[in-house]
Amino acid sequence: MTTTQSARVGVDVGGTFTDLVLHDPVRNIVRTGKLLTTPDDPSEAILAGIARILREADLKPEDVHSVIHGTTLVTNTIIERTGATVGLLTTDGFRDSIEIGRETRYDLYDLFLETPTLLVPRALRQEIPERIAADGRVLTPLDEGAVAAAAKHLVEAEGIEAIAVGFLHSYHAPQHEKRAGEIIRALYPALPISLSAEVAPEIREFERTSTACANAYVQPLMARYLDRVQTSLEATGFRGNLYIMLSGGGITTVREAKDFPIRLIESGPAAGAMASAFISRLAGLDHVVSFDMGGTTAKMCLVDHHEPNHKFDFEAGRVRRFQKGSGLPLKVSVVDMIEIGAGGGSLARIDPGSGLMKVGPRSAGAKPGPVCYGRGGTEPAVTDSDLILGRLDPAYFLGGEMSLNLEPVRQAFEARITAETGIDVEQAALGVQRIVDETMASATRMHLAEKGKDPRRYTMIAFGGAGPVHAWNLARLLKIKTVVVPLGAGVASALGFLVAPPATDMVRSYVARLERIDWARVNALFAEMKAAGSALLTEAGAAPDQITFRPVAEMRHVGQGFEIPVALPGLELSEANVPAIRAAFFDQYRDRFERVVEESPIEALSWRLSCAAPGWTIDLAGAVPRTDAPATPAPRTHRRVLFEGAGWQDCPVYDRYALRTGTQLRGPALIEERESTCVVGPDSEISVDAFLNLVISLP
Amino acid sequence: MLHDRMDMMSDSPGAALDPITLEIFWNRLISAADEAATGLLRTAFSTIVRESNDFATVLMDRNGDSVSENTGGLASFSCILPRTTKDFLRRFPAETWKPGDTVVTNNPWLATGHLPDFTVVTGIFHRGALVGFSGSISHSPDVGGALWSADCREIFEEGILIPPSYLLREGQWNQQLLDILLGNVRVPRQVLGDLQAQVVAAEVGARRVAEFLEDTGLPDLQDLSAALSERADRAMRRAIAEVPDGTWHSEITADGFDDKHTLIRCAVTVRGETMHIDYAGTSPQIDRGINCVMNYTHAYSVYPVKCALDPFTPRNEGSYQAITVAAPERSILNPLYPAPVSARQLTGHLLAGAIYKALSQVIPTRVIAECGGAPTMRALFSGTKHDGDSFSQVLFASGGMGACPHKDGMSATAFPTNVGAGSIEAYESVAPIIVRKKLLRTDSGGPGTFRGGLGQEIVMELDSDQPARLSLLSDRHDNPAGGILGGGAGGPSVITFSDGSKPHPKSRTSMEPRQSVTLLYAGGGGYGDPKKRSRESVKDDLRHGYISAEAARTIYGVE
């Protein structure tokens, strides 16, 4: 077979599993694979996985056009605090900005709050005489000698492995930071340097400096790791390109990833959202809630017009995983996703204070896991309740690879719930479902409410091991009428790697009132961002004439503390555009806040340019194996399932792999595939679409 | 959807409000309050609500009893709102409410203790009947009078007082009331914008509760409210019962006004499942704006008890039923109209420290030392910029929290309030001020086995060719945050101009061009004997400059 160099491989290194997906457009095949992550050297599992999936697809490393890689390494390094020793240079008088932070308590009632451990302890933060004012005036010139002395001290006396620089007002006047960077580079050419004006050129010193410190913190490790992955791939004969998945759902080059590794913080989860976006495009759905539920968490993301919602801040390494405000703030472009402490492993208990049942966020994790795994778990988990209620088949878990034991589950419910409350085991198990589903519904309602959106306008796309089990009931609670469950729910998110476009988000800050903006300066900022974005995307495989640019200004009323993004009419603006921009601001403002206050002056703070090439596409219909199953397949078996509001129902159980396009079924029904079971309650219609998605219509 | 809820109820016959259903219903009502809060945040126009967290939303049953409150709201506000609503019900009896009626007040004695907070309450209707109330409290950008002052002699100087009145009657705005109010404030657009946001919030909450009743098939909130209240009450009583019976006393002193220091005398009595907090012997009310009305005294007494004893049970009407609070009439903790009350937080924020000092004698592992950020220190600069625009900017920053029984206090963090800080870059971009320094203050954390949180040092220079006004609201200059169980006091507040002079700490003064002012925010008190602090912690503090070499040697005995 000749070398085609056309196949693309997505690799997602997660905490437990390394997931792979391969698409060969020449033969139109899609293959997926899963193996255990090798935590000591994640590249081992990557290479082994790629070798295996290529073998299964009958391809050689030379045939691979590109490998797209997503990794949790950056997140984990921050969570586990295993990054580099970092030094920080700040403006004189401001070395404590990253320690003082926002001065709020994230839990109003806990007197003994734990705060996130600082990435740069105080002794490693040095102050440099220099000062630039808000309007760009240099009040105190940079003391270059002080920069050299501080760097020397930090490197030679403190042994730092990376350095960050965060000076006041560098978001629009970066000259002092840049000069400091040059001085340090001259002294220590191998020392990784993160300038806040390059990592996150946005106003607000705490968030910007914190982002620069986090970038420095993960940089040495990520650089070594990415080099190793690239070298070992090349050693196998791979001649294609290695691309890295960004938190915003685009892909980028290894070089960019090494310069700004912090932009990989949500690399893995972003793929799931991109997969939903892709499926929504295929299925022609304009407004989608992407619902991904696994063992410990559920993730929700809104996908409007086939694009996941974005935001430009993120919190990493939270002390309490599901508590806003308990982590380190980062100014990075990420898919706007909420994470809820609700998964198959979430544990149920009776709260001793109020006597009420609670489910999650505590999770049994993979070890010991739910009681039914028989690995020492004693507290009932969501998966245990799935089993009692008939949603899961004890004999067909993970496609039969694992058999589950029901009796200890009943005993656990009796001991932990029935004995405390008198509620029988079935109702207790149903209670676990009701609570976990309501928790997810509440969080989703809030997420939508914050954006002023109505869940009833949305369709749900459900995946992840536990997603299809809970999707129907969750949709019912949210009054969502349609649920789409893609084939291969357990690995669907990996598709996101293959469809992600080369993309980058650039930002510059320049604060000015709308009527006094120096448009030549804005145009220069956009020109600079456009040039940098084009260069980067071209390097990442995009054709220069196919790149689209979307300019946005972050604007607000003077005096308000929050900005809203306003799409701009072009990259070359002038006074003449002001009325249109003002109108666009009011449109956005009304959309979000339901009202405008016209006479109050408006200002712009930051200027963003999203640059993207078209995404890849995959012909899923052609890619999935054709079956000659009958249009209305016979159920494999029947099982009794307890539904809230409908009591025990006798449900037909279908084999997902036996369904083909056009099949019509009615709920209640169970549709089983290897990694998940789709549960459909009464009074619902199920059809299989051209891409073998299950499309469930609720009453 | 009707059949759903009938069936849902039939799943658990006779036990409609079992521990599972109650958990779900409670969370759903908390979400409804959170959505109302989101409505307020989204539509509020001024920065105060969004930036400083100075608001709360509460959902109540037909009697005005709280069933749920928003998660991040100001604790004192959510505690007071149901009390205000019950007063509304006395003036406007339940049978007179119509859909679309909304009532407002800012009367300090009926509501939250000073004029800038507006309480707005809307009736919730389900199938044509009044089933409850949806309300919010929010700090308004202005109420006229002497803005940001502690020095008024009577409430009449402090702004306009709106007695309980219809803000909307059957959906129609009370234009006459609006005209009077807006004619008395400096920024009418913003004041109106925020009131509209409160109405939006109340409507969102009311709508969500009506939907909830529709979904669940419950006829009203009364049974559910009683059941939820019973759960919260049970949790608090259980927690109080774990505290041995007895009475514990404490006394704390604050700077007060001029030479009149404030004495707060506190006795906490535990009898079985109940607690009584009594402030007999506390200073009399004074003719300056630091008097703290009873509602505020009550709220800032029960909130710290909740934090110490039962922090994790959600709140509703039941949460505080086991606790009673008393303060003598005409004392600074229970002043009578028309006492000035504008800066009541300068007194009310101190109560947590007094209660913890008393409780430290019996439950030392559940409380913290006094906080440097209680009360908050505020500096408001206003004047004219280079370009002729006017500016008015509050610098939000906090002192250090008191030390905990097992770890150091948080630096630069407020308790019992939770007002955050903004960015200096953002501050400088809207005010002609250059902040020369914003640093943790070495040696300001009260010494102890566990050290108090550090205060901060902020130096601000007026970068303008015109003078500016500076309003100061501060305390703890003469009376720093005390330590407990052998811990030492934190560093006091200090405010100094560049010429060495010290402004009155509760005054409206002015600054000359290029002049600068140094604000030292108080540190938190220490916990336990400093000599028992681990040597490693002392050395660590020294290495990072949290303490000086001298403090290490003289206080901690570490060379």
Describe this structure in words.
The complex is a heterodimer of chains A (699) and B (559). Chain A is α+β, with helices and mostly antiparallel strands and 699 residues long. Helix content of chain A is 31%, strand content 26%. In chain A, strand 7 (131-132) and strand 8 (138-140) form a beta hairpin. The longest helix of chain A has 31 residues, at 205-235. With 559 residues, chain B is α+β, with helices and mostly antiparallel strands. Chain B has 13 helices and 19 strands. Chain B has helices at 2-11, 19-43, 47-52, 75-91, 175-182, 188-216, 222-241, 294-309, 345-348, 351-359, 424-430, 535-543, 549-554, and strands at residues 55-61, 66-69, 102-105, 117-126, 129-139, 165-169, 172-173, 246-257, 260-271, 274-278, 323-326, 378-384, 390-395, 433-440, 456-462, 468-473, 494-497, 508-511, 516-520. The model of chain B is unreliable at 1-15 (pLDDT under 50). The chains are: A alpha+beta (699), B alpha+beta (559). Chains A and B meet through helix 3, helix 7 and helix 12 of A and helix 1, helix 2, helix 3, helix 6 and helix 7 of B.
